[in-house]
Amino acid sequence: MAAPNGLARIDTTHPEKKAAAAAAKHENGICHDDSSAPVRAQNIDELHSMQRKRSAPTTPIKDTGASPFAVAVSDEDRRKQQLQSISASLASLTRETGPKVVRGDPARKGEAAAKTSAPAAAPPPPQPHHHHHHHVAPTISVSDSSLKFTHVLYNLSPGELYEQAIKYEKGSFITATGALATLSGAKTGRSPRDKRIVKDEAAAQELWWGKGSPNIEMDEHTFLTNRERAVDYLNSLDKVYVNDQFLNWDPENRIKVRIISARAYHSLFMHNMCIRPTEEELESFGTPDFTIYNAGKFPCNRYTHYMTSSTSVDINLGRREMVILGTQYAGEMKKGLFGVMHYLMPKRRILSLHSGCNMGRDGDVALFFGLSGTGKTTLSTDHNRLLIGDDEHCWSDNGVSNIEGGCYAKCIDLSREKEPDIWNAIKFGTVLENVVFDEHTREVDYTDKSVTENTRAAYPIEYIPNAKIPCVGPHPKNVILLACDAFGVLPPVSKLNLAQTMYHFISGYTALVAGTEDGIKEPQATFSACFGAAFIMLHPTKYAAMLAEKMQTYGATGWLVNTGWSGGRYGVGKRIKLPYTRKIIDAIHSGELLTANYQKTEVFGLEIPTAIEGVPSEILDPINTWTDKAAYKETLLKLAGLFGKNFEVFASYKIGEDSTLTEEILAAGPKV
Ligand SMILES: Nc1ncnc2c1ncn2[C@@H]1O[C@H](COP(=O)(O)OP(=O)(O)OP(=O)(O)O)[C@@H](O)[C@H]1O
Ligand SMILES: O=C([O-])CC(=O)C(=O)O
Ligand SMILES: [Ca+2]
Ligand SMILES: [Mn+2]
C-alpha cells in the first residue's frame, strides 16, 4: 500500500471496517499482522501492570514433625516471621528493638511494600557471652533510625538484581553475552592483613594463633563496635539486600547463611556462589546459623582499636557473625564463610579443603589443591568429567561434597578455545568483576588488565554443562597438588608417596602471579599451609593429619603438578601450555601414570615419568628445558632452601598419632 512517493500512506479506514477487511483477508488464507486483537488496557499504567504477573503465593509451611497439634502457618504469618527474623539480624545492640523492616523496593511505592510492613521486631535473640565488659552500652530507645523503615530486598532473582544494579550502582552494565559487568571499587582482591578473628576463651584455646597464622586477634568489644558501625550504616540506607542460602551439599552438614548487603552486586554474587534454596526450603529456613553484615562501601573507623587501615573483615565465631567494612571485593564474603567452615567442619571430623573436585564417568574422584591462580577452577572444569566444584570442599566419612553452589573463575586472558566451558558460562546471571569491555558492542576484552589482573566471573555451578548435581561424590582416588612455580624448576608432574604428599600439602607452595590478594602484583614465592593458610582456623597439622588418614584409608594417590614455568624462570621461560597440563591430568585420571616408568630427581627427590601421551618427553625433566644448566641448579637449590626454611616451624609438631609418619614427612623435603 505504498504511496507513489514511496512513503507509507496514512490509513484512514474506520477500525471496524478494517477488522472486517482483516477477517476477509484471513478467509483467503492470508494473515496480516494488523489482525491481532488490541491490548485490553485502558491506559499506560494498566498496560504496565499487566506485564508483571504477581508471583504465586508460596505454600504454607508444612510441619515435618508428626505432632497432631501442628498448625499450618499462613503465608502472611510466614512473611511476618521472616521480616521479624531480618529485623532481629539488623538490630542495633544498644537499642531495644530492631529496625522497622518492610519488604520490597522503596522505588515501587504503594505496591507490595505498604501491605507487608512489619512491626518493629522483637529484641535480637540472646547470644552466648564469653566476656563481661566494664563498658555498659547505653539504652537509646528513641532514635531517628527507629522512626524510618528499612526496605528489605529478600532473595531477589537475577533479573531483579540486574535491574537494581544497573539503576543504582555505577559501573554496572550488561555485556554482549548477557553477563552483569560490575566494579568492586578500590579493592580488587582480598585483604588478608585486615582480617580479624575474635579471640574469646573458646577461640583462644581452639584456633591457631601466632607466627604464620592468618588469625589476627580482635576483642569482643571491638567486634561489637564494628558490628554497630555496619548495622547503623545498613539501617541508614533506603534498602538492603538479604540473601538466605545454604553452604555444603552434604545434607547432614548443611549450614544456613544470611548475607545482608548494600549492593545488588553483592547479593547476585552470593546468589551465584552459595547454594540456592528451593521455595520450600526457604519457607522453613528459620534462624540462620551464620550472618554476614557487608557494609563494604563504608570504611571502618581507624580510631577503633586494632584497625590498621580503613578495611576490616571481622569474624566472631561465638556470635556466628562476620562484619565487612571498607572493601567491596565480593570474594571476601565467600572466603570468610570458607574460614568459618574450616572451623565448624573439623569439629565434626570432616576435612575442609581449598580444592577443586571432579569425577570421571566411572566414579573416580580427583581433588585439585592449590593456591590462588594455580588452576583449580581451570583444571576441575573438564569437558570429559563431571564437575563437583571448583574451590571449596568437604571430605567426610561419606565422601566429598562441595561447600558452594557456584564457581569463581579467573578471567584474565580467558579464551573460548582453551576454556570453552568457562567461556560459555559467562552469560545472563553471571557476575563479571572488573573486566573492561567495548563501550558500544559490550564485547569483553579479557586481555585488558587496566582495572586489575584479578578479573573474575562468578556463575552458578549449573552453568557448566557437565556439573554433577547434587555436588557430592565418593572418596577421592587422586589428590593433585597444583603449584605455579615461577622459578621453573619443579617438574610438570611427579608422583608422590604419602609422606611427600603431606610435606607438600603442609608447605603449600606457589608463586603468586596475579593480584588476588590485594597489593601483590609481581610474582613471588609463597608458602601457604594446606594450600590455604589465609582461610584455615586450626593449626595446619590438624588438617594434614586428617588428610593423611583419609588418603591412607581410601588408598588415594598424591601428585604434584607444576602449572607454572618451564624453560627457565619467570621472565626467561614460559608458562607450561595449558593443553599439556590437561594431557598430564588426563593421564593421572586414566591410570596411565600409575604404571609409567619413573626416574628420581635430585634435590627434591621427586618421581617423574619418562613419557606421557601427548606431552613432549623433553619437558618432563625441567633441566632439559633450561639452556643455562648452572642457572638451573642454582635456582633449584635456592627454591629447596626456601622450602626448608619455611618448614622449620613445622619440625616440632607431630602429625597425627603416628610419629613414624611425622619423621617420614620431615625427611620427605628437598635435600640441599
Ligand atoms: N598450564 C596451565 N594450567 C592451569 N592454568 C593455566 C595454565 N596456563 C595458564 N593458566 C591460567 O591460569 C589461571 C588459573 O586460574 P584458576 O581460576 O584455575 O585458579 P584457581 O586455582 O581456581 O584460583 P582461585 O582459588 O583464586 O580461584 C587461568 O587463568 C588459566 O587460564
Ligand atoms: O578468594 C578469592 O578472592 C579468590 C580465590 O578463590 C582465592 O584467592 O583463593
Ligand atoms: Ca577458582
Ligand atoms: Mn580459591
**What percent of residues adopt helix (DSSP H or I)?**
25-40%
Task: Assign the CATH topology of the largest domain.
Answer: Phosphoenolpyruvate Carboxykinase, domain 3
State the strand order across the main sheet.
Answer: 1-2-7-8-9-11-10-5-6
> What would the principal axes of the Cα set say about the shape?
globular
**CA-to-CA gap between the ends?**
91 Å
Question: Could you give the count of β-strands?
Answer: 32
Q: What bound compounds does this protein have?
A: adenosine-5'-triphosphate, oxaloacetate ion, calcium ion, manganese (II) ion
Residue runs with pLDDT of under 50 for 5 or more positions = 58-66, 112-141
Structure annotation, total helices: 17
Proportion of residues in β-strands:
15-25%
The pLDDT mean sits at 89
Tally of discrete structural domains:
4
Class based on secondary structure composition and strand pairing? alpha/beta
Global Rg: 29 Å
Instruction: Describe the sheet with the most strands.
Output: 9 strands, mixed
